[in-house]
């Protein structure tokens, strides 16, 4: 797979012009390597787009990287978090402590943060294990009980909705709600420069994780939401994309169309696979085992298999909503199973 990701050691803070800077912030132990945090200057002080992982090395990189761009972290006006994941929201609380600024996040992700902050670690592990068991996992369901959970991010001070303008005097930075990767993921359109901060929604070479949690929910369809969000972003035209990973790139509309085509192809291949195995209803876990990932299933750790199952569940849910697969009858408490329809 081609990627524009370079080693974190090769990254440097960059002046992107138009009073916008990027600062690479490391993600310890992650193949993603780093999050690109952006600083947008205004007459009333800079606003950050995302903040990075909550780790001392990441904090040092953020503070010193901003300083290299002429931005004192103590003068930050606020942090807009594109979504609640720890490599984006983790340091927002520390920036708030240093600067007295605000944290803003879409209301749907703010609700998830409240839930996470109110859930004890042991309860979260039990939830994860039961979710995996319902998907048809074996020993992996027990393995997650021993896994560590990152600390939940800080609760935001401001909750955003689609179309809101960020408090950034002298600039026009508008919220574009793009659910899919998370329920409250947002892109941010810097309208005075026709630039789009895309978070994880549109990346130049890789695609974001789209999953359902719990895996067997029927009241949501995050992949269909994501596809709709891609269409919406494509409607913004050839704006320059400023993503949270890899590097900035031109023509966000073209890349959004590529990602949509990738998932539509993946849905077709999954439908064909389910048709081939039509005599045997499959659990979500069995479907995930049969799908193609960036590494063989046997090489994936239990947590990575759990993420793969979440993505398999999201694709199955979209096929279900389109009438291509259905849930097979089963006894209460049994893992949910899917089978192809006759259409």
UniProtKB/TrEMBL annotation:
Residues 142-162 have a biased composition (Basic and acidic residues). It holds the Pfam family Lactamase_B. Transmembrane segments: none annotated. Residues 34-245 form the Metallo-beta-lactamase domain. Residues 138-162 are annotated as: Disordered. InterPro entries: Metallo-B-lactamas (IPR001279), NDM-1-like (IPR050855), RibonucZ/Hydroxyglut_hydro (IPR036866), WH-like_DNA-bd_sf (IPR036388). PANTHER family: ACYL-COENZYME A THIOESTERASE MBLAC2, METALLO-BETA-LACTAMASE DOMAIN-CONTAINING. This is MBL fold metallo-hydrolase.
